Amino acid sequence: MIITHNLSALNSLKKMNKNNKATSAAMEKLSSGLRINKAADDAAGLAISEKMRAQIRGLHKAQQNIQDGISLIQTAEGGLGSIQNPLLQRLRELAIQAANDTLTDADREHIQKEIDQIKQGINAIANNTEFNGIKLLNGAKTGTKTITVTKDIIVPGYYETTPTVVDLSKATSITIFELSNPGNSKYEKTFNISDLVSGQRWEPYPSSQEEYIFSVDLVNNTFTTTALKNGYSYSGNTVTGVRINGLNEYEDVEVWASAIVSHSAGTVKENLDAILGSNLSDFPLFDWSTPHDTFITVEFHSRKYIPESITTITETIVVDVAEPLILQTGANQGDTFEVELADGRTTTLGIDNLDYTTRLGAVDALAKIDAAIANVSAQRSKFGSYQNRLEHTHNNSTNYAINLAAAESRIRDADIAKESMEMVKSQILTQASQGMLNRANQQQKNVLGLLR
């Protein structure tokens, strides 16, 4: 028998302490009604529950905001109702009366006095209708707004500022002029642009010495004249002018060769310039001593016509708008509702200057009053739609809060029956462990019997 370490007593003490803790935990849950009283009870459940509690409390406050918003809207709509009936209706009634020529000018003067009083009454309602100090019907809550608008701009047709290379596909034909020797008769021949794409000979030759091949390059918009040797000891290119005809979409209908693009290596640039322009008497004097073909490639310049076009541009402008009231109708950022207030003053309604002193003035006032009544009706309809929408939002918020509360209860609240059972179980175990601890202590006393 060992007395230094009473293992039985230690084990019984350990179990008793465990049962005491279980009893305390069950009593805590039963006394608070909550399954989670501290983070140690359920860390994840506590985080979820607290987020739900924030949503629930936010929804309850949002419901109050919605009710306040509905009250504000009802106040504004009621003010417009007072303006519309009887005041605007009375204005219309008096306009019909004043439009009748059975009245004298003096009669209409008396009507005008009542009209002025009615307008003051309308302005008084518009200026004094408020909710918690907020003016609702006098346009006091205004601001600016930046909006994006698009509009079409017609750009008139115009010619380019600087001549550019002519698109040869826009021409119908090319006329070539040739002068074999100074003083001889000039030769000319016209070719269709389409025929020159694959190259064309000048047949019969304009003189007995030169044989020519002409071609166009529609990609690079160039014209090339090539003089072949033709059995002689020299080759020459005495084309003294090239003109394109029937040009469309350009400033000029006919255009002469404007610039040299390339030429044979053996020719001299000063002599080549004779092919440019319309001076047909300018003899080229190309170098005939070269033993190879002589070619010159030219291009044509004219100002292109840019047709009329419609360009759509986007621009931002700042406009004056009624600054809306923002109602916080939900538990989260962005759960808002905008309420645009109305302006019921006579200047905004267009009835500021009503003249009933003449029949024509009364007739003109009738049209203005009808427009004002329509305007007020539209504003009242808008307020009515606001109220209906807020009431739907309130109902949804109430249902949302109830469902969240039920979900949070399932996470946070204690199951009383279960916790009662746990407490009874832990109490019985505590009592049993106490008995076993007492029994273990009795075993130590048996050692004294051995020592007698």
What does this protein look like?
The protein has nine helices and 19 strands. Helices cover 46% and strands 21% of the residues. Strand 1 (130-131) and strand 2 (134-135) form a beta hairpin. The mean pLDDT is 86. By secondary structure, it is an alpha+beta fold. The chain has three domains: 7-33 and 419-451; 51-137 and 332-408, f41 fragment of flagellin, N-terminal domain, CATH 1.20.1330.10; 164-306. The chain has a five-stranded antiparallel sheet.
CATH superfamily of the largest domain: f41 fragment of flagellin, N-terminal domain
Order of helices and strands: HHHEEEEEEEHEEEEEEHEEEEEEHHHH
Radius of gyration: 52 Å
- Count of DSSP strands: 19
The biggest sheet amounts to: 5 strands, antiparallel
**Order of strands in the sheet with most strands:** 8-9-10-14-13
Helix percent reads 40-55%
Distance between the termini: 15 Å
CATH fold annotation of the largest domain: f41 fragment of flagellin, N-terminal domain
Mean pLDDT: 86
- What top-tier CATH class of the largest domain fits best? Mainly Alpha
Shape summary: flat
The number of helices is 9
> Which residues form runs of ≥5 with pLDDT under 50?
none
In the residues, how many domains can be counted? 3
How are the elements arranged and paired?
Layout: H1 7-32, H2 43-98, H3 105-128, E1 130-131, E2 134-135, E3 142-155, E4 158-159, E5 164-165, E6 173-178, E7 187-192, H4 193-196, E8 200-201, E9 211-217, E10 222-228, E11 239-245, E12 255-256, E13 259-263, H5 269-272, E14 294-299, E15 301-302, E16 305-306, E17 309-322, E18 325-328, E19 336-339, H6 346-349, H7 359-412, H8 416-445, H9 447-451
Antiparallel strand pairs: 1-2, 3-17, 4-16, 5-15, 6-7, 6-11, 8-9, 9-10, 10-14, 11-12, 13-14, 18-19
